[in-house]
Amino acid sequence: MHPALTLGIAIVAVALLLATRASARRALDATLEWCDVQLARFERRPIIIAGMLLAVPVTLVTVFSFFPLLYAVYISLFDTRRGTYIALGNYHRALADPEFWRSVKVTLYYAIGAVPLTIVLSFVVAWLLFRITRFRSLFRTVYFLPYVTSAVAAATVWRVLLRPQSGFVNVMLVSVGLEPQKWLIEPRSVFHLITGGAIPADVGPSLALCCIIAFDIWHSSGFMIVVFLAGLSAIPRQLEETARLDGASTFGVVRYVTIPLLSPTIFFLVIVSAIKSFQAFNSFYALVNARGEDTQNLIVYIYAQFYENQHIGYGASIAVIMCVAIVLLTIAQWRIAGRQVYYE
Amino acid sequence: MMLRALTYAILSFGSIITIFPFVWMLSTSLKSAREATAPALTLIPDAWRWRNFADAFQAAPFATYFYNTFIVAGTVMAAVVVTSLLAGYALSRLQFRGRGVVFAFLLATMMVPFEVTLIPNFLLIRDLGWYNTYAALIVPWCANAFSIFLVRQAFLTLPMDFFEAARVDGCGHLRFLTWIAAPLIRPTMVTIALFAFLGSYNSLLWPIIVTNDENMRLIQYGLTVFWSEAGVQLNLLMCASTIVIVPTVALYFAAQRNFLESSLNAGIKG
Fold first, then answer.
1. How close is the nearest chain B Cα to the Cα of A247, in Å?
2. Contact assignment for B123 to A275 by CB distance below 8 Å
3. How many domains is chain A partitioned into structurally?
4. Contact check, Cβ <8 Å, B205/A303
5. What residue in B sits closest to A218 (Cα-Cα)?
6. Which residue is closest to A149 within chain B, CA to CA?
7. Which residues of B touch A298 (CB under 8 A)?
8. DSSP-assigned letters across all residues of A10-49
9. CB–CB contact B115 A29 (8 Å)
10. Are B117 and A64 an interchain contact pair (Cβ–Cβ within 8 Å)?
11. What residues of A are in contact with residue B24 (Cβ under 8 Å)?
12. Minimal CA separation from B94 to chain A, in Å
């Protein structure tokens, strides 16, 4: 069937449903009531009712989130191209694979670049937004906008802006007398470019990787700003005012009142964004087509093993290594930063 | 006074940078092909070529992409709302043995990074015979621990009296859940629905892995294909990006009234 036709039928169906809302509601209510009557038979044994309500959600989560974890470990013990059991062979191979270690390096550069900058920038914007009254919701909407747009579509725009020939950014640079750059297709390290070649070209993140980091900061800080705003509005006003009356400077209030009281929010965002930074894929795929050694992070490497080399067992072993690393990192964060977090 | 002016200045500067790519996208989408590639900094096109949008829509099977995407994202959104309501209700308002265990199990699955599940889930989908089907794109995403968690937290803030009163009046579990409890936590419901839709609409990696049929392609991958096809004109490319962005932005504006940031804060404070 032609998609446009099906879409038309769907629209008509929704319109009909809206037109007959009252009867649809009654029909739904009758169905629910019938179900409730059935459930009421087990009123003495709530575990059965709970089991019925939880059956579908828990099954889905188990099958598609928990079971795959075990299955990944199992697959990683096989050479899937030959179909033979090789115990820890894939893991040995990964640890001796220079391409794996390069991907680890790119992943770490990305995390070290993206996580702190996004958090600091979002905090500053949220803190400023919280101090103004007029246009606050307008600003908030603007800052949140990139987050609701798809990374692929937004990355397409960035690619156009960063084109080496006659892209907007390079035209700007040239017009103020600076050198144009190759941006997304520049594999040399930013340190190399900044120091004019004093540092070798393969030390530090490439300019292309830095562009990806900048893109993700732009794309994801809206979410953090909104979470920070929620955290800020939960801080009792009197505390900051008291500190102020006691003669604390603006900076002092932020340092000794706002940030400690916000520490649960900051801690939550650090953990979530650290985990997310290990999983970045869309921006890598959309900005540089998941190509280029200097922009191959671990998930792009797993994707390449899976998609281009058909080496599923090896890909799974890298995924398991990553999973262990993420869990260890999160535990370390709990241990180190968790103590600093102030809970009311 | 100075300080406030400075605050507004910084915020305005930041928002101009934030919004600029979108402005450039719209401006380029209305330019002619030659003007779009010219090394110029002009934002206002010589002539406003609205026809570009029609041309871009014709240049690739965007109708098919949108049709697939709306079916997938709409179903996922509806399913996530239902499963989260059911599970969140059971985990907050029913007393039964093992409740803590089930809840802890769900929280633990939140920690499982999605790249670990990628390959096993692909093999599972293949063995189920779901390769290149809507089921592969929809079913794995129909329930998630984070949404269940948010709904549970929201239900816990409701007074138990509502529940007791409804029971005394003879209202069963599901009717109470649908007509009383769910509307009371509307901001949370809107938030999880919005995130479910966005997650599904914006997904790229999973659809690439479980489909290869052109007729099953979703909008995000469709856009990357459109971009990589040789000879695509920049103005049409920007039209395509605009077309892809508009539905989610519209949805966000529609949901904004109900989308309270407080609902995101549920998990953070003790």
1. 18
2. no
3. 2
4. yes
5. B18
6. B245
7. 115
8. HHHHHHHHHHTHHHHHHHHHHHHHHHHHHHHTTTT-HHHH
9. no
10. yes
11. 157, 160-161, 168
12. 7
Does A78 share its domain with A200?
Answer: no
ipTM: 0.87
Q: Which domains does chain B have, with CATH numbers?
A: 2-49 (no CATH), 55-265 (1.10.3720.10)
User: Mutate which of A43, A47, A54 to disrupt the B interface (most B C-beta within 10 Å)?
Assistant: A54
The amino acid at residue B72 is V
User: To the nearest whole angstrom, how far is the Cα of B142 from the nearest Cα of chain A?
Assistant: 7
Within-domain flag for A290: yes
Residues A308 and A214 in one domain: yes
pLDDT tens digits for chain B (270 residues)?
Answer: 788 899 999 999 999 999 999 999 999 999 988 888 887 778 888 888 899 898 888 888 898 999 999 999 999 999 999 999 999 999 998 888 889 999 989 988 887 878 788 889 999 999 999 999 999 999 999 999 989 998 998 898 888 887 788 878 888 889 999 988 998 888 889 989 999 999 999 999 899 999 999 899 999 999 988 888 756 788 999 999 999 999 999 988 888 777 655 555 554 543
A148-200 pLDDT, tens per residue? 999 999 999 999 999 888 888 998 898 888 888 888 988 888 889 888 888 88
- Whether residues B269 and A344 touch (CB distance < 8 A) is answered with yes
Residue A151 shares a structural domain with residue A64: no
Chain B residues with CB inside 8 Å of A306's CB?
118-119, 122, 209
Q: Which residue range forms the structural domain that includes residue A9? A: 3-88
A182/A155 same-domain check: yes
Question: Of A34, A55, A88, at which residue does a domain stop?
Answer: A88
What pTM value is reported for the model?
A: 0.88
What SS3 state is found at A343?
coil
Residues of A in contact with B135 (CB under 8 A): none
Tally of CA atoms within 13 A in the half-sphere of A3 that contains its CB: 14
Which CATH number is A195's domain given? Answer: 1.10.3720.10
The pairs formed by B184-190 with CB atoms below 8 angstroms and a separation of 24 or more are B184/B158, B185/B151, B185/B154, B185/B155, B185/B158, B186/B258, B187/B258, B187/B259, B187/B260, B187/B262, B187/B263, B188/B150, B188/B151, B188/B153, B188/B154, B188/B263, B188/B266, B189/B81, B189/B85, B189/B151, B190/B255, B190/B258, B190/B259, B190/B263
**For B149, nearest residue in chain A (alpha carbons):** A57
CA A11 remoteness from chain centre:
34
Which among A4, A40, A142 has the least Cβ separation from residue B15? A142
